[in-house]
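README: folding subset

This subset contains proteins for which both the sequence and a predicted structure token string are available. Records are stored as plain text. Below is the entry for Biotin transporter (174 residues), shown exactly as it appears on disk.
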Amino acid sequence: MTTAALASRATAAARFWGLALLGSAVLAASAQVSLPMWPVPATLQTLAVLLLGALGGARLGAASVALYLAEGAMGLPVFANGAGGLAVLAGPTAGYLLGFLPAAWLAGLAGRGLPRQALVLSAAHLVLFVPGVAWLAGFIGWERALQAGFVVFIPGTVVKTALALAVLRAVRRG
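--- output ---
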């Protein structure tokens, strides 16, 4: 490999990880916009996850989430309400946090065309509830987990998915 090719690859890698770090910061900021609910707070994180994937692509979206999770695991106060540390990744919200990874990746497959984008973003938003509710059920049981960890979030999920779709469409037009 030539020196120019190596420099080009290094520049591309630095750009990618710089954007992923920026994405993790956006996700951390979105976690601080929180409506206190029990046992899972309502935040803007899922909107950020959808946009990171849809606008950055599957790889960059997932990398941003992975960095965010690593930052939180190291104790940085990036999770909802300024929390950080491994205890959060073992607590009731851990399934949702880990569900951000496949959700961001899936959102990155939104592609073009309104029907496809709407379907993919809706699926991406819903896919994070699977590990979220499953993990939460270990703490409070299935019936309560479905109610407190999914049903109460349906209106917000619809609004945030529609907002993510609108932002994606507006950015892709420009």
